[in-house]
Design a protein that fits this description.
The protein is built from 10 helices and 15 strands. The chain has 329 residues and is of the alpha/beta class. A 9-stranded mixed sheet has the order 14-13-12-11-7-10-9-8-15. A 6-stranded parallel sheet has the order 3-2-1-4-5-6, sandwiched between helices. The N and C termini lie far apart (42 Å).
Length: 329
């Protein structure tokens, strides 16, 4: 039976603990320095809790889930790797380039199974956009637009948004790293990126010290271009994707179905989500995939080497925004 340590018991750590239990993983210890969070986790799930990292390693876990603020991701991932643990780390892999190569080398030398959170790849929408593109339904892709945004104070109305890691540069916040999902699945759809240009910054009246809006133009090595918009501002939660091909168009919106138009049929066709589909389904499938890869000793869909490339894309976008110039990758 797999022994799992979850490091960080905020909202996403709590979600993963619940999903681990639903997938039959019961040997769990949860680490958080906040006693209130530890008490809530123990009361809600009945799992063991601890308050410092040394107690985690004494527990000798097979697998570690790292669900802390981004500033701590890389340090904890390196520590897990050095202890010989397979690990899942939430996105982004890091808020800096330094140390990523070291992590990749340790994981490769120890043949560790790793995964960086990429839950949108497991969502009904983007996963079917990927399928349709791969099947050539719209011919050769030419361009795409991806959008994601939601007013930060609405994420967790019972909490002070100013205290969230997303709102603080010292914790690795900012919409470019926080909204890395769109960059990740754009690369998943179209391959490696050749150049990036980003315009954005702190544009709203939110009381945060990080960028809250970014428009990122990505030029892929295949010649495809994609415009990614991400923000902390939209009062109505938005997430969508449109791909234009030589023979048709794919359109997806998180509040509706996925549809595609082809020149061959001359009409739109709709792909409906499964009955009773919920947002948590993608997190369950993401964790199921990771645990299966650990059990089968197979590479995951987004290991640290792959995720490092996406993180470098995001950091290049931030550099472009600050310097107001194109960045070559």
């Amino acid at each position: 039976m797999t022994r799992v340590a979850v490091v960080g018991c905020g909202s996403i750590g709590t979600r993963h603990i619940g999903n681990l239990l639903s997938l039959g993983v019961s040997d769990i210890i949860a680490l958080d320095p906040d006693s209130g969070r530890r008490d809530c986790i123990h009361q809600q799930f009945g799992v063991k809790t601890c308050e410092d990292e040394e107690m985690v390693w004494n527990y000798r876990p097979d697998v570690v889930l790292i669900t802390t603020p981004p500033k701590l991701h890389l340090e904890l991932a390196i520590s897990a790797a050095r202890h010989g643990c397979h690990f899942f780390v939430e996105k982004p892999l890091s808020d800096r380039v330094e140390g990523q190569d070291e992590l990749v080398e340790i994981c490769q030398s120890r043949s560790l199974i790793t995964m960086v959170g990429c839950n949108m790849r497991f969502h009904f929408g983007p996963s079917n956009v990927k399928r349709l593109v791969s099947e050539g339904v719209i011919g050769r892709p030419i361009s795409a637009s991806l959008d994601a945004g939601q007013y930060m104070p609405d994420w967790h109305p019972d909490q002070d948004y100013r205290k969230r890691y997303s709102a603080q540069s010292r914790l690795g916040g900012g919409v470019i790293l926080d909204g890395i999902h769109e960059l990740d699945y754009a690369r998943w759809l179209f391959g490696e990126v050749a150049e990036i240009f980003c315009h954005g910054g702190k544009l709203s009246r939110l009381e945060i010290d990080v960028e809250d809006s970014a428009n990122i133009l990505m030029i892929f090595k295949t010649g495809i271009s994609a415009m990614v918009h991400i923000d902390y501002i939209q009062r109505f939660y938005s997430r969508s994707c449109k791909v234009i091909g030589e023979e048709g168009t794919i359109s997806w919106d998180i509040h509706g179905a996925l549809k595609f138009f082809t020149a061959k049929t001359g009409k739109w066709e709709v792909v409906e989500p499964p009955a009773k589909y919920t947002i948590n389904d993608m997190y369950v499938e993401e964790m199921r995939h990771f645990l299966s890869c650990v059990e089968q000793d197979e590479a995951t869909i987004s290991g640290v080497e792959d995720a490092s490339k996406v993180t470098r894309m995001a950091l290049a976008a931030r550099k472009s925004m600050l310097n107001r110039e194109k960045v070559l990758l």
